[in-house]
């Protein structure tokens, strides 16, 4: 039952969850960062296929721009494009 409730709180496509130890720092240093929570987090997302993992605040700012674009542009077509890019990225590695 715990697995089911966890799966209901996450989408296939959407902004990836941020590690708890970084969240407060990003919230204080990136304007409107809390907007990432307008939709449920996802297993993969536009920021992951375009930006990948981040190690600097500037990289996280760029990743956030991709997340905002995704939130503003939600569509089945965009989700399918992200899913295809995610599959391609996995196959390359």
UniProtKB/TrEMBL annotation:
Domain Bacterial sugar transferase residues, every copy: 10-90
InterPro entries: Bact_transf
MF terms (GO), sorted A to Z: phosphotransferase activity, for other substituted phosphate groups
One Pfam family from the record: Bac_transf
Family: Belongs to the bacterial sugar transferase family.
Listed name of the protein: Bacterial sugar transferase domain-containing protein
Source organism per UniProt: Mucilaginibacter psychrotolerans
